[in-house]
């Protein structure tokens, strides 16, 4: 294999020979499986689970290939490869997902082995992006950069990647299994809506440990993850997770797909009984074999050593001048740029949500540009966020204006991170075989309605999340305003929920009233916003806070007044 | 009988699949051949659709041609047969949000 992965990129885990050999073997295995399917040696029934294990779905228009971006972190070289594949084998674009992965929508089965081979050249693959296994572990997109970070989640996400890959006990779980890790004071990884959510902490001695939340999840039956153990020491990290997965494997339902996720098991067993089972299993497992050796942790940590930061002054005159001279840049700076732990640096969120655009989509030209900008401004690495944006995590403040101008020229400069235009939307009925209604057109209409950046900032933090079916890939349950597409006798309707919260104060939103049509939905969202603005105590009171204070009634009255 | 003529007789069905090799949406046309355009799809009475579908499935699997084969309802609008559901309309045309993609772009 022509291996062209960079040798020493800061912040990127570098495959060793075992990793490379494993991925190469899987590519060759799949190549033969595809050949056997095309020759008729394998039936579709036999082949389907195999292709799913390699991230290949059949969607409405073609095959869809989901590429793993482990914990959402990748190098500029890898992003360029994704752009190259998108041009050569797809239709010139890709779609970034809420699992921090990338999907191509127009893939040919016969091309897939070649695509996987090309991905392997840059240490990428599509493993664990489908099937009843531990999926791509997600983490904070500001990891390694955030000022409020306590523990680097990449280290433990990478340990889990290695530990779960091909783990025989976890290859045929009752259902898919999603894990998220947050190591900062602010939860930017939505940990409590995951099968297992991990909050990394430090104790009084400065030692790393984890709070384990289990049984969160959205979909047909949404649940907020429950605290199973407040503190698990680093050395027990793997053992405790293994104990949870063993209990799930033993008791999780396999007879009913709708009741197979661990959230149902936790709910039906009850937290006390579930915890008891896990603790008993943990007591059996705990010991030298499952002890996470500090040397292993340190070895992985070295892959994520800080990049060679310079020591610019924290106050940037160049930045201040640009801010004063260019209001659009000043707005982007205020909305899309976060504080960095290193003086003189900042974290820049690249919005993939232009007004009226398709959330999460990026053209291959845009991917190439972001790869160039990552090399020029952020040590050659970037992140994918679970809200379908990209992040350059280590940008010198002096260079932010130059960065933004280049982004803006490529329609990547929208100033809406965390605002009403920063909508999560699943692919919906435009692409997805499971969807009941379209998500994207509604997202486009809403973001176009609220295109004015001044208006967006006036409204403030307000997450809209849209799903095209009850599987909730668009996270609608935890949207401050959530929208679920439903099919009513062949017509698309949209059910609006309010009060969802994906952060540590996790809440599942409540249905506001009867579903509305697509046209009515945009007006309804605007009406909700108007009620919020009329009722808030000031600009400091977020939508979610006003809603909690005044309740649903004023919103309901406005939307359904004519009914 | 053309698709247009036959759809006038009432609710009809067409049969669709994704081509195995490339996933392209295809429809069962006249004479049992698969076509890429819905305009060339054969339409079947509801009463005959099940038997045609079973035969198409068996043939497609034997010849490694298509996967996910099923029948869907067709109605007439302005004298033209069209899929009854939004889902099938999108499959026959392409994403409504990217008119430059799919069959509609051809």
UniProtKB/TrEMBL annotation, chain A:
<protein>
    <submittedName>
        <fullName>Nitrite/sulfite reductase</fullName>
    </submittedName>
</protein>
<keyword id="KW-0004">4Fe-4S</keyword>
<feature type="domain" description="Nitrite/sulphite reductase 4Fe-4S">
    <location>
        <begin position="130"/>
        <end position="283"/>
    </location>
</feature>
<feature type="domain" description="Nitrite/Sulfite reductase ferredoxin-like">
    <location>
        <begin position="63"/>
        <end position="122"/>
    </location>
</feature>
<keyword id="KW-0560">Oxidoreductase</keyword>
<dbReference type="InterPro" id="IPR045854">
    <property type="entry name" value="NO2/SO3_Rdtase_4Fe4S_sf"/>
</dbReference>
<dbReference type="InterPro" id="IPR036136">
    <property type="entry name" value="Nit/Sulf_reduc_fer-like_dom_sf"/>
</dbReference>
<dbReference type="InterPro" id="IPR005117">
    <property type="entry name" value="NiRdtase/SiRdtase_haem-b_fer"/>
</dbReference>
<dbReference type="InterPro" id="IPR051329">
    <property type="entry name" value="NIR_SIR_4Fe-4S"/>
</dbReference>
<feature type="domain" description="Nitrite/Sulfite reductase ferredoxin-like">
    <location>
        <begin position="359"/>
        <end position="409"/>
    </location>
</feature>
<dbReference type="Pfam" id="PF01077">
    <property type="entry name" value="NIR_SIR"/>
</dbReference>
<dbReference type="Pfam" id="PF03460">
    <property type="entry name" value="NIR_SIR_ferr"/>
</dbReference>
<keyword id="KW-0411">Iron-sulfur</keyword>
<keyword id="KW-0349">Heme</keyword>
<keyword id="KW-0408">Iron</keyword>
<keyword id="KW-0479">Metal-binding</keyword>
<dbReference type="InterPro" id="IPR006067">
    <property type="entry name" value="NO2/SO3_Rdtase_4Fe4S_dom"/>
</dbReference>
<feature type="domain" description="Nitrite/sulphite reductase 4Fe-4S">
    <location>
        <begin position="423"/>
        <end position="559"/>
    </location>
</feature>
